[in-house]
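Exercise 7.
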Amino acid sequence: MAEIQLGAVEARFADMIWEKEPVTSTELTKLAAATFAWKRTTTYTVLHRLCDKGLFQNRGGVVTSLLSRQEFYARHSKKYVDETFSGSLPAFLAAFTSGKKLTCEEIAQIRELIDRAGEQTGDTPDLPDMLI
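Solution. The predicted structure, written as tokens, is:
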């Protein structure tokens, strides 16, 4: 699937849809009016663009996602790591955590993510000391 680029307003609107889905297009126009002060036509224009990009669908007046928020942002994160760190997740984590001391909760969450990823591959590596 081609990369989906969203502007700031489109991203905020998409987040609203993900939070409320499934949502009727009528309810979406009310939410957009209250949140963005949009008219109905603006809401439908932006919704149409997001549907054309393959992010959402509007079937029978009910809007649902074709790509979850998690899938969308995971793709963008992977692309960023690929382009900026030559696909190296350890290099990304080292850069992201440099100059920042992680909390015990953050360390526990990262360990859990690594453990789950290790379970999928059959390998459970230790968390690098540079993150602690």
